Amino acid sequence: xxxxxxxxxxxxxxxxxxxxxxxxxxxxxxxxxxxxxxxxxxxxxxxxxxxxxxxxxxxxxxxxxxxxxxxxxxxxxxxxxxxxxxxxxxxxxxxxxxxxxxxxxxxxxxxxxxxxxxxxxxxxxxxxxxxxxxxxxxxxxxxxxxxxxxxxxxxxxxxxxxxxxxxxxxxxxxxxxxxxxxxxxxxxxxxxxxxxxxxxxxxxxxxxxxxxxxxxxxxxxxxxxxxxxxxxxxxxxxxxxxxxxxxxxxxxxxxxxxxxxxxxxxxxxxxxxxxxxxxxxxxxxxxxxxxxxxxxxxxxxxxxxxxxxxxxxxxxxx
Length: 318
What we know:
globular, 15 helices
């Protein structure tokens, strides 16, 4: 499944992010909180100010997976006049098509890089790193518990019919899901590619904060009432089932919910970092104007305010 998602999303000739993504928001296939309101950007700026004071330096923003640049523009609007003059805003995106759009954002406000390693080297490893709906965009592996063991799911084709097929696996990736959800027929996803990506750049990051906003839950509740897992697609804001994905591969977004327990465990291996996990409601509520429908929606419970999580990793320079 990981290889399928890699090709469906990122293949240079036919992948969704490389060739078919038109926009994010009302005109695209899906929306993010940054396309709905400036509230997430205002909260990001407030946390950036706190982090700059704690680090004793003016940190650059480093946004990973900036989409069409809506968050960058909202951050620019949320900065004070003098802050805007001094601010450095770096953006990282794997998609060349999106990087072309991002280079035009704010008349040069944004500097665009294809890897976070290059961006961190450009700012000396000191940065306020943040992302909005990033881990879910990484290819995931999918597993099913059958006959007392975990098997890996992938696509097979027979007689012109495409279907998921379970196969034995030599070893399982690290995930809290395997011990908790070992129940007959349960399907789980592991974004192992995100885990590898995260581990690769951590040694380059010297100080600042890393804020990860995405939809998902902690491991204890993630698959409650979801025996078939969370892998799905979106096309023109329409939900697609996992079995519809092969037909629309390259023409739709493919995603899976994020296991925030796995993300917490990854961050905890960076000894000395301070970790905080919040719901989106808890993160945004201090600055929310609930008289505005778009801001009320982002902090509503139940809803987006409860279903999205915010993981804050803070690092002080030794």
